[in-house]
Known about the structure:
Layout: E1 18-23, E2 32-36, H1 39-57, H2 68-77, E3 80-87, E4 92-96, H3 98-113
Helix pairs in contact: 1-3
Amino acid sequence: QHYYITNNLSMSSSNSHTILLVQPSHKPTSRTYCDFETLTEALEGVCKIYEEHLKELNPSSLSITYDISQLFDFIDDLSDMACLIFNRDQRTYEPKDKEWIKEKIYALLRKQAGK
């Protein structure tokens, strides 16, 4: 099976400042954000958010494993998640939705697994 990941941003996007917006519940007060120097750091940040969630659910576990489908279910269950990626050429932030974020996480994890 072949996977094709398209990137709608310039090649420098992986090195662009990225703001991750997360709203875990429907309550507006649950909204939060994190900013990262690179897109890769932001994608890794999403994984860390999920890992912290798993640690809260399983406080007595010494190690926790999960697969990508569980991570994607977690992202889907969030009320909202998006990222804003700085486009140096246009000097603006480009919004990206959950599906785009999941595509990029998938590509990142495949790349890391191939190392």
